[in-house]
Amino acid sequence: MFGFISRRLVMALVVMVVVALISFLLFRFVGDPVNQMVGIETTPEQREALRERLGLNDPIIVQFVRFIMGAMQFDFGNSYQFKQPVADLIGKRLPATLELSLVSAIFALVVGVPMGVYTGLNRHSPLSKFFLSVSLIGVSLPTFFIGILLIFVFSVTLQWLPSFGRGEVVEIGSWWTTGFLTLSGLKALILPAITLGLFQMTLIMRLIRAEMLEVIRTDYIKFARARGLPNRSINFIHALKNTMVPVITITGLQLGSIIAFAIITETVFQWPGMGLLFLQAVQNVDIPIMAAYLMLTAFIFVVINLAVDILYFVIDPRLRTERSGL
Amino acid sequence: MTDQTLNTGEEKAKGRIARILDSDIFHSFIKSKVTVLAAIVTLVFMLTALLAPWIAPHNPFDLAQISILDARVPPVGMEWSDPRFLLGTDDQGRDMLSGIMYGMRISLAVGFLSVGFAAVLGIFLGLVSGYVGGRTDAIIMRIAEIQLTFPAILIALLIDGVANGIVGNLDREKWAIWILTFSIGLSFWVQYARTVRGSTMVEKNKEYVQAARVIGIPSFIIMIRHVLPNVMGPVLVIATINLALAIITEATLSFLGVGVPATQPSLGTLIRIGNDFLFSGEWWIAIFPGLALAILVLAVNLLGDWLRDALNPKLR
Amino acid sequence: MSILDIRGLSVEFPSRKDVFVAARDVNLSIEKGKILGVVGESGAGKSTVGNAVIGLLEAPGRIGTGEIHLDGQRIDNLPAKPMRALRGKRIGMIFQDPLTSLDPLQTVEFQLVETILEHLPVTKQEAQQRAIDLLDQVGIPNPSERVKQYPHQFSGGMRQRVVIALALCAEPEVVIADEPTTALDVSIQAQILELMKKLCTEKNVAMLVITHDMGVIADITDHVAVMYRGDLVEYGETAQVLGAPRHEYTKSLIAAVPRPDVKVERFPQVDYIEGSAKPFKQIDISTHWLGKARDYKAVDGPLLSVKDIDMRFLTKNAWIAKNRQYFQALKKVSFDIMPGETYGLVGESGSGKSTVARVITGLYDPSGGSVNFAGQELTNLRDKKQVLAMRRQMQMIFQDPFSSLNSRMRVRDIVAEPIKFHKLAATNAEAYGIVEDLLEHVGLGAAAGKKFPHEFSGGQRQRISIARALATRPRFLLCDEPTSALDVSIQAQILNLLKDLQEELGLTMLFISHDLAVIRQMCNRVGVMRYGELLEQNETDSLFENPQHPYTKELLSLMPSMELLSTEALAIA
Predict the structure, then answer these.
(1) Which of B145, B304, C336, C384 lies at a 20 to 30 A Cα distance from A135?
(2) What is the span of the domain harbouring residue C477?
(3) pLDDT (tens digit, 9 = 90+) per residue, C323-356?
């Protein structure tokens, strides 16, 4: 167990270092940071002074180490567009994105998993075929178009739900704002959460169905049938548990990608999260924000992946025990 | 003599067509009405896109044909509509139907190009990784794993942002489509590489490859001549499904405003423009291109789904 | 009084074009405490009969006509629910592959207790005790400890014991075993068969054993039914059927079984076999293209000399060399093969016999030792030209006829590839001419070249493999289990072909097999391998008559007895 987890930890560390390297290279070589920070009227001497002060004349390795040290304290310097510390900008936006992602993820899992199990077990029932058709439409509609359709129906036409923003938010402590505690906050959450979760939900459903069909064909399921076990036990104890191993990996990855897909949803709904901030950064080549966003999402993904690996361990005994000779 | 050879040639050709018509795959195709419909829709859309300059009622890029007086005309069937514009016009007076036809051109072009790019890169790396193994394999797969931690859309966004930063604002329009193709392609190669690697590792241990090695044939030729044709089945399925994904990704990036420039609108750009008019009641500017996009992607996805099931012998 | 009665059973598989009848008008019955064997080659429909009895025919299979009675009660038309209640409770089933028959994520105890509770009116504690008792009965040591373990902690043979315990959970009256020992090594097979026979008498169970292996039939069955292409061709007491077969097919099947106890010159040419090939035609070696192989430099002494070969595989990589773990596949293996001789290597799975072949052909680089071929050291041969010249002189025939041919290439191109690669023909046309000739020679006919591999049966594919191996005009042929994936009747043909070719072309052969009987028929000298070591080597007859090493003795004692089998059709050498 220790060996397995520590190997995964090393891998996670490698991922973070690589991402840090990419972020650093972005920061250092895409455009000249000095040019981005100063106006046209700055003299060459002033530029050189700034260059020296920022340490841009030091050896690359030194700069990289300094970058990593900074990143560990979440210090990525100032945004080119806003001339404010990146950490503050992102910190202010983080709660909005995390709340949205969490609700979408729960929605995707709570609806997607049962649908997947049902369609996997009842391959030919009309309801399965209906679910499958819906899911195919779900993966075929681009996220942003789903958002637009929802806005068109529920905000423009029916005027039931707001089309943009978070509604009223409540501050918790000095660094967290939540929309969970007000009616308008909850109402504002519904459309974006569905938009963001729908795609993941259909993917999870289709994946579980495919795995289920695969497992149902294995010898041990046939043997379980030949032993006269009831369908309930075959389906839920033997088939579902074996389905879970691959499903957990991909589901983990999918949930991680919700944070990234939030960029699109936040744009459609003008949701004041960090995805929207990142998009503006991409459009304006605001490298510090891009670098910080990249590092933060990478960190979140790595944590999710580690959690998935540990879950593996709980489910699959083949990983827990070494093979005994006999 | 010539007659005879011609005859046998013809017979052979006929035999091949008859064999295709009689094959299980063709049969499963014909039997599934949805798939046939999807194939027809895909074909019609592709032809429309290809022939847009000749069959579109207007040329949305020709300033002489556009008049601001025609702006925001609703589609036929609604009040104030104009029979010249079947699906209405956008805010600058461009015909929506023509815009969609031209937009489809760009969407499909980027889709095909990026899938091709991703496939070639992914197949090559997967083949090498799986066949050579060892350290080469470890390096390629670690890179793939790291990239896989990030969703394709994020990678595409990043590459796009970086490339635009490098190219600079001036050349941005000229390069936009190529940058887009490159960034979408680069964000999709992993799936091909992993699939091809997996199949290659299976094929590599099959005895026909060992037989080729015993004969003395060099690795590179074995990879191309023996392994490659045998790992292409799953690649075809991925490519089809990826075409749908690439079209969606292109539309998404264009919608986010980092894709193709507004002078060459793709379906995503059209939707972005239309999104601003959703609240003032001009819904058609966003919804029609959106529906066209959704139908195209749905049709391609249906084909991909069918292909996957048809090529999977276990599901027969 | 028979417990299971099958009357006039037909099983059909409807497809798009027609209805395929997998079993036709089968009549069988089994008594309590007796074992009935159903034997046949692939496609005989024997497994279908077993699946029909337990009501688990694969879709779209269905019972066409006939009835199945269990203890006087008709069961073939039962609805799903009572049928399920019957499975496990009154009819148990044992599957072929113990590695895939158990749910990998549940403990053995869970799977046993679950099954017991489903069928017997006992408490959980009683069920747990019964689970331990069952493991004890099927011969698993330390049952109270091992019951808590997961399937992957058991070896293949032990897992098959667990599978048997699961099948016996609820004291069924009938047990169906579908190729129960096919996936196991000889030594394990003997133990499992013994266990099955013992349980059958002790528990008074009627057993239906489905197998392709005449040895299994001779060993444990009381009655035997022989099936051929869906038809039951002969049915009676085992001793009678094997000793004095009446049906032509049974006769030819028995004659084709290689036997460890008698050596035959050639296997009898029997018809009644699908895809039978054209008879072997001798060619004039002095003028034929293949004859040019004779131009190779003659050698004094052994053609191949293997000395102290070591081979280890990395099983666990690590940064520090000390922490790396290796699997020692070969330990100081040495042997010589004289020109024109057939040398056999025999051993169970994991003995390293196939690794030897892969080291000799250069597919693996050995970790130590040397391979000397025709006076040339191969292990440190680096010059490309010389390597190719060596490769050309030795070719290999592989085990699996389905994976040894590239399914995307035409047969003609498969066989022509070595000719073109080694530039043995001046033009493409000449190369294809040679290919046609080769295909003709291995009994396929020249027209075969235009087809793709999937259009051929397993035996025919193996002939294509042989043609490809001959296409470089080798003088040394390595055969790695060339017939173990084939039915016995096809095996006999292929072995005959190999013998003919060797005689005609003066080939030297290394023949690798797990099957002692095949080795006895094919080889001049034999080496016995276990765990990567060559334990004993000797002239074939001396080794079989007078084995020295205890392991060899054990292997020979485990051979299923073939004394029952008729020798009528054999030309004993």
Answers:
(1) B145
(2) 289-571
(3) 777 888 888 999 999 988 999 999 888 888 888 9
pLDDT 10s digits, C482-498:
888 888 888 888 888 88
Of C157, C225, C226, give the one whose Cα is nearest residue C193.
C157
Instruction: Report yes or no on A171 lying in a domain.
Output: yes
Report the SS3 class of residue C232. strand
User: Model's pTM, two decimal places?
Assistant: 0.79
Chain A nearest-CA distance from C47, in A, is 14
Highest mean pLDDT among B175-179, B234-238, C299-303, C467-471: C467-471
C465 in a structural domain: yes
Residue pLDDT, tens place only, B58-108: 777 776 666 666 666 677 666 666 666 666 777 776 777 878 888 888 888
Distance from CA of A120 to the nearest CA of C (A): 17
The answer to whether the Cβ–Cβ distance between B207 and C403 falls below 8 Å is yes
Cβ pair C404:B206 closer than 8 A: yes
Is residue B6's pLDDT more than 50?
no
Indicate which CATH number applies to the domain containing A143: 1.10.3720.10
Rounded Cα–Cα distance for residues B138 and B142 (Å): 6
Q: What is the pLDDT of residues B274-288, one digit of tens each?
A: 777 777 777 777 888
Q: pLDDT for C222-232, tens place per residue?
A: 999 999 888 89
Asked if the Cβ–Cβ distance from A213 to B244 is below 8 Å, we say: no
Q: Is the CB of C495 inside 8 Å of chain A's CB atoms?
A: no
Using CB atoms, pick whichever of A19, A31, A149 lies closest to residue B165. Answer: A31
Residue C272 lies in a domain: no
Number of domains present in the structure of chain A: 1
Give the pLDDT score at B9.
43
Q: What are C24's strand-pairing partners? A: C231
Cβ distance A188 to A167 under 8 Å? yes
Q: Are C480 and C346 part of one and the same domain?
A: yes
Which residues of C fall within a CB distance of 8 Å from B27? Answer: 16
Tell me whether residue A200 is in a domain: yes
Looking at the domain assignment, is residue A97 inside a domain? Answer: yes
Residue C246 falls inside a structural domain: no
Distance from CA of C425 to the nearest CA of B (A): 15
Nearest residue of B to residue A17, measured between CA atoms: B146
User: Considering its fold, how many domains does chain C have in total?
Assistant: 2
pLDDT reading at B168 higher than 80: no
Q: What is the enclosing helix (H) or strand (E) of C370?
A: strand C368-373
Other C-beta atoms lying within 10 Å of the C-beta of residue C369: 18
User: Same structural domain for residues C206 and C326?
Assistant: no
Same domain as C186, residue C295: no
Q: CA of B225, closest CA in chain A: separation in Å?
A: 31
Q: The domain spanning residue C219 has which CATH number?
A: 3.40.50.300
Give the closest of A26, A261, A301 to B153, CB-based: A261
Check residue A325 and give its pLDDT. 32
- Clarify whether residues C116 and C217 are in a common domain: yes
Specify burial of residue A146 (Cβ count, 10 A radius: 0-12, 13-18, 19+). buried
Contacts of A10 (CB under 8 A, 6+ apart): none
Q: Is A263 within the bounds of a domain?
A: yes
The fraction of chain A above a pLDDT of 90, given in percent, is 1
Domain of residue A107 covers 90-285
Biggest alpha carbon–alpha carbon distance for chain B: 78
> In chain A, helix, strand, coil percent, each to 5?
75, 0, 20
Residue C269 lies in a domain: no
Question: How many Cβ atoms from other residues are within 10 Å of residue C17's Cβ?
Answer: 8
State percent of chain B over pLDDT 70: 79
Right CATH number for B106-315 from 1.10.10.10, 1.10.3720.10, 3.30.70.260, 1.10.760.10? 1.10.3720.10
